[in-house]
Specification:
Keywords: Elongation factor, GTP-binding, Nucleotide-binding, Protein biosynthesis. This is Elongation factor G. GO terms for molecular function: GTP binding; GTPase activity; translation elongation factor activity. Belongs to the TRAFAC class translation factor GTPase superfamily. Classic translation factor GTPase family. EF-G/EF-2 subfamily. There is one protein chain. By secondary structure, the chain is of the alpha+beta class. Helices cover about 25% and strands about 30% of the residues. The radius of gyration is 22 Å and the shape is globular. Helix 3 runs parallel beside helix 4. Strands 2-3-1-4-5-11-6 form a 7-stranded mixed sheet, with helices on both faces. The protein has a 6-stranded antiparallel sheet with strand order 20-19-22-15-14-23, covered by helices on one side. It has a 4-stranded antiparallel sheet with strand order 7-8-9-10, with no helix packed on it. It is built from 9 helices and 24 strands. The longest helix has 19 residues. The relative contact order is 0.14. The structure holds guanosine-5'-diphosphate (GDP). Guanosine-5'-diphosphate binds next to helix 1.
Length: about 425
């Protein structure tokens, strides 16, 4: 049992190659306790780059789904490839994500691949957060990247954190909601975080950013605006709620910063995923077609993310494994049970779901209950005549999930 559905997050980390997606993912898995040793991308031994060939090339090809826990949330991290040639795969994973974290390098800023992915996320209305990484590198410029996100991506990044220093002098981050400076101890691999007053020389700038932040999010809520005018401030919880609402509607993108290599700023991303990104209940119910409607029956079907609805599951990735093919599915509605016979409405054939796994990167951990609930993602073994994009559903309640078009052609980068 992954816990209540409102605490479930299906998210992806997307980035242009080299922006630091693998490093950040690795830190996330480490902080959430899914792994107990740190890999290093430069040694090719990180947890998500589990294919040997891929590790050699230093490119994340496989969209593996990894499950981890952060505080009271269960996070399914759907890995998306960063290489420019794998755009179709990015698209496939975006289709099953509820939210995304887009990583930018503070040096290179918005790059071709970030533009493509951003546009696709716009198309799918995927709520997202931004992480401006590599603040420790020569040439890092936080403001520049914010400007590029606005100009080139037409995004609306809302800084929730500011860097303290840059390049060799990058020391920590300012939490604008908390109004505190955070310093991460590299010797503890960032586990220990010291909270201090904001350095004097940055107080004015932080105050300006904080005021802008509150005004931006309070604008959409009359009661909050009134409270803000009266008290000159808002309680942290109100600010978080307003940020969440504006993130879910796509009005803005909460923006974080740090250096994942130096362990700075990764836990705030996890708190952000928890606080601001959607659960499966926050996205519209999935639509589909009844493949063989009886007379007077509508061909259009809607399935809500509820356990008591008929099962509708989508295969979004098939990974050839040593022993058997592993189909990654998103359960949009109903409950998927191991040992069940399901219909593939595209072929009209029945498929057997013999085993269900929740994946922990290269070590696959079996789901104890042998069932996966509405909203969740898992790997299944058993289906034979299936392809990416196929629906699995009960024989009595057939549904073909809608508009799942997975073009194999790579989108031009012009
Ligand atoms: P990906 O291609 O987006 O998955 O990027 P990687 O995580 O593989 O990182 C690409 C390179 O940048 C590696 O050599 C990392 O060690 C390095 N890197 C990642 N994050 C940071 C960072 O915050 N600061 C610095 N200086 N280097 C980083």
């Amino acid at each position: 049992m992954p816990g209540p559905i409102e605490k479930l997050r299906n998210i992806g980390i997307v980035a242009h190659i080299d922006a630091g997606k693998t490093t950040t993912t690795e830190r996330i898995l480490y902080y959430t306790g899914a792994i107990h040793r740190m890999g290093n991308v430069d040694d090719g031994n990180t947890e998500t780059d589990f294919d040997e060939e891929e590790a050699k090339r230093g490119i994340t090809i496989y969209s593996a789904a990894v499950t981890c826990k952060w505080k009271d949330c269960t996070i399914n991290l759907i890995d998306t490839p960063g290489h420019v040639d794998f755009t179709a795969e990015v698209q496939r994973s975006l289709r099953v994500l509820d939210g995304a974290v887009v990583i930018f390098s503070a040096v290179e800023g918005v790059e071709a691949q970030s533009e493509t992915v951003w546009r696709q996320a716009d198309e799918y209305k995927t709520p997202r957060m931004c992480f401006i990484n590599k603040m420790d590198r020569i040439g890092a410029n936080f403001e520049n990247v914010l400007e590029q996100i606005r100009k080139r991506l037409h995004g609306n990044p809302l800084p929730l954190f500011l860097p303290i220093g840059a390049e060799h002098d990058f020391e920590g981050i300012i939490d604008l909601v908390k109004n505190k400076a955070l310093y991460f101890d590299p010797d503890s691999q960032g586990q220990s975080i010291e909270e201090k007053e904001i350095p004097e020389e940055l107080q004015e700038m932080a105050a300006e950013y904080r005021q802008k932040l509150i005004e931006t999010v309070a604008e959409r809520d009359e009661a909050a605006m009134e409270e803000y005018f009266e008290n000159g401030d808002l309680p942290e919880e109100t600010i978080h709620r307003l940020i969440r609402e504006a993130t879910l509607t796509g009005e803005l993108q909460p923006t974080f910063t740090g250096s994942s290599l130096d362990y700075i700023g990764v836990q705030p991303i996890l708190d952000g995923v928890n606080r601001y990104l959607p659960s499966p209940l926050d996205i519209p119910p999935v639509k589909g077609i009844n493949p063989n409607p009886k007379r007077n029956e509508s061909t259009e079907l809607v399935r809500h993310a509820k356990n008591d609805e008929p099962l509708a599951a989508l295969i979004f990735k098939i990974v050839a494994d040593k022993h058997a093919d592993l189909c990654f599915v998103r359960v949009y509605s109903g409950v998927l049970k191991s040992g069940s016979r399901l219909l593939n409405p595209r072929t009209g054939k029945k498929e057997f779901c013999s085993q269900i796994w929740h994946i922990q990167a290269d070590s696959r951990e079996k789901v104890e209950t042998d069932l996966v609930e509405a909203g969740d993602i898992c790997g299944i073994i058993g289906p034979k005549a299936v392809a990416t994009g196929d629906t699995l559903c009960p024989q009595q309640h057939p549904i073909l999930l809608e508009s799942i078009i997975f073009p194999e052609t790579v989108i031009s980068m012009a």
